[in-house]
Inverse folding.
């Protein structure tokens, strides 16, 4: 019985470490400060909420419509 509990704890520990590592993972690239398409400044809130964003909200929606 004790073995089963240990196994479960190891398992929980494993997934905890996994999710912590995922949270700590840095974005692949920093967010752009200026839009790649129109050179408008990207609001800091957007830079921070969208990791690795390249465009302002307007251009992003244009890009998504083009897709
Ligand atoms: Zn733009």
């Amino acid at each position: 019985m004790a073995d089963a509990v240990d196994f479960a704890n190891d398992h929980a520990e494993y997934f905890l470490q996994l999710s912590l590592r995922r949270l700590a993972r840095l974005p692949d690239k920093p967010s752009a400060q200026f839009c790649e398409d129109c050179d408008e400044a990207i609001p800091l809130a957007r830079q921070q909420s969208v990791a690795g964003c390249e465009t302002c909200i307007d251009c992003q929606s244009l890009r998504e419509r083009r897709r």
In short: The pocket of zinc ion is lined by residues 35, 37-38, 40, 55-56, 58-59 (CB under 6 Å). The mean pLDDT is 85. Residues 2-66 form one domain.
